Amino acid sequence: MNSRTAVDAEGAWFEPEHIDELRRRLPIPYVDVVPVRTDVDGSVVEVGLLLRASGDGQIVRAIVSGRVMIHETIREAITRHVEKDLGPMALPRIPVSPVPFTVAEYFPTPGLSPFHDPRQHAISMAYIVPVDGETAPQEDALDLAWFGIDELLAESSPLDEMNGGRDLLVRRALAHVGAA
């Protein structure tokens, strides 16, 4: 298995030690994607959450997320990460505008913001992306489940299984579309 890390669309790679050094010194641009299913009127009815192992070995719920590579547009990054996590037949409706519904700043130091990533300072543009096709967990995802709005807003919610503040990001997405 190759442990090198992609950094651009042309196939240049950093060794793990090099990307770790960069993460210690520079904020890294990311996209966070909240995949949704909509009804015929365009109202959000379900949110897709992945199940994956976290860096510390916990099994957690997650959203589609990843780095923006050099020479890659935001729209290309969204498409690449949706296909990487949900499969090539997901058929995402990529936003026409690259303006995110929010920006999440992940810090390696807990408490500086509601968002935490122990590996790095990441600045993530967050998008709500309707998905029309067939989806299945890909790559390192163990499962993909679609949850109704009522399930997500319940007292005991799948959002409780998320870490690093990503539950807040999903709640903000639901509020942004008027579903919360």
> Helix proportion of residues, in percent?
10-25%
What CATH architecture do you see?
Alpha-Beta Complex
Query: How much of the residues is beta strand, in percent?
Result: 25-35%
Rg from C-alpha positions? 16 Å
The CATH homologous superfamily name equals Nucleoside Triphosphate Pyrophosphohydrolase
Mean pLDDT: 91
Number of helices: 4
SSE order in H/E notation? EEHEEEEHEEEEHH
Major sheet attributes? 8 strands, mixed
Straight-line N-to-C gap: 42 Å
* Structural class by SSE content: alpha+beta
Which parts are unreliable, with pLDDT below 50 for 5 consecutive residues or more? 1-10
The backbone outline, from C-alpha atoms, is globular
CATH fold type: Nucleoside Triphosphate Pyrophosphohydrolase
The count of DSSP E runs of length 2 or more, i.e. the number of strands, is 10
Number of domains: 1
- Name of the CATH first level: Alpha Beta
Report on this model:
The protein is an alpha+beta fold and 180 residues long. It has a single domain, classed as Nucleoside Triphosphate Pyrophosphohydrolase. The chain is 22% helix and 32% strand. It has helices spanning 16-25, 74-86, 149-153, 166-176; strands at 5-6, 13-14, 28-38, 44-53, 59-62, 64-67, 102-107, 115-116, 122-130, 141-148. Strands 3, 4, 5, 6, 7, 8, 9 and 10 form an eight-stranded mixed sheet that branches. A two-stranded antiparallel sheet has the order 1-2. Strand 3 (28-38) and strand 4 form a beta hairpin. The longest helix is centred in the middle third of the chain and has 13 residues, at 74-86. The radius of gyration is 16 Å and the shape is globular.
